[in-house]
Write a structure and sequence with these properties.
By secondary structure, the protein is an all-alpha fold. The protein is about 75% helix and about 0% strand. It has one domain. α8 packs across α10. The longest helix is centred in the C-terminal third of the chain and has 29 residues. The chain is globular, with a radius of gyration of 19 Å.
């Protein structure tokens, strides 16, 4: 595995995290015209169709596909879209959702017997401190409910990470497409139950070109391009080389929200971002630092 990114591949990784980060702005704007669960449903419909007819089903059990589809489709994106519909600002959502790293570690400890290293405890404490800063400053743009929903979305994402890891080395794009079979029906049912037929009909009637472009961007930009490019890079470089790039997602998320939506960046928000990202960076980079230290 290569450990040094070429300029071309660095720019590809940067494009992926830029898409993932600025996507929170796209979500916020689209939610102004469409109910969140309907928006999530359409996202996975476009992921599923027509690609399911062109990509062979990955060689994994149906229960694995179902688990991933439910956790990522309903748990992660369903809750994320509901939270961003007036309960949390896009910039903070892009930051808090990255706590999935800590949840992934915790679930691995509980389910696979993995132990937590001392450095990881420090990283967890930094992340918790950052969340504490956010909790102490909840206001009209970020509510306790919004923060709780994003944390549940991050927990669902972490569960999806463990399910996909159990699937082994597969075509990730095909995996995302076929797992969407299990995301669409429950999201559609929840949309009809929670939001009601009138809201669904009004959302579809009010949707303009931008709204449908946002749905397509969610499916093709984030899921198909993002996963395909990220998986391609991970197959050619060590995880320690690629995964730290994900730390730039909140920077693009908060920067894009400030630039296009006028979201403020007061001192407390920057402090929270610094603490959470320091924790994430420490957790992601300490194995690389440890290996280099041992070689000396």
């Amino acid at each position: 595995m290569k450990t040094s990114l070429s300029l071309r591949h660095f720019l590809l990784a940067l494009a992926v995290v830029a898409v993932w980060g600025t996507n929170f702005v796209v979500i916020k704007l689209a939610l102004g015209q469409m109910p969140p669960l309907l928006f999530a449903t359409l996202r996975f419909v476009v992921v599923l169709l027509p690609m399911v007819f062109f990509l062979p089903r990955p060689a994994v059990p149906w229960r694995n596909l179902a688990g991933y589809g439910l956790l990522i489709g309903v748990g992660q994106f369903g809750l994320l879209f509901v939270a961003m519909n007036g309960h949390i600002s896009p910039g903070l959502a892009s930051l808090v959702i990255q706590t999935q790293v800590f949840f992934t570690i915790g679930l691995a400890m509980l389910m696979a017997g993995e132990s937590l290293q001392r450095v990881q405890w420090v990283a967890l404490a930094l992340g918790a401190a950052g969340l504490g800063v956010i909790v102490s400053h909840t206001d009209g743009s970020t509510t306790p409910m919004g923060l709780a929903l994003i944390l549940l979305a991050a927990l669902s994402w972490a569960g999806g990470n463990l399910v996909s890891r159990a699937a082994g080395r597969i075509n990730m794009v095909a995996y995302v497409v076929w797992s969407s079979l299990f995301a669409v029906p429950p999201l559609a049912a929840l949309s009809l139950w929670v939001e009601g037929w009138d809201a669904l009909a009004a959302g579809l009637q009010q949707a303009d070109v931008f709204t449908w472009a946002a749905v397509a961007w969610q499916a093709w930009g984030n899921s198909l391009f993002g996963y395909a490019a990220w998986g391609w890079l991970l197959s050619r470089y060590s995880a320690a080389t690629i995964t730290p790039m994900a730390l730039l997602v909140p920077l693009f998320g908060m920067g894009g929200s400030a630039l296009w939506l006028g979201e403020g960046l007061p001192g407390w928000k920057l402090l929270a971002a610094m603490l959470v990202m320091l924790g994430l960076a420490l957790n992601l980079l300490w194995p690389w630092w440890a290996r280099r230290w041992q070689r000396r």
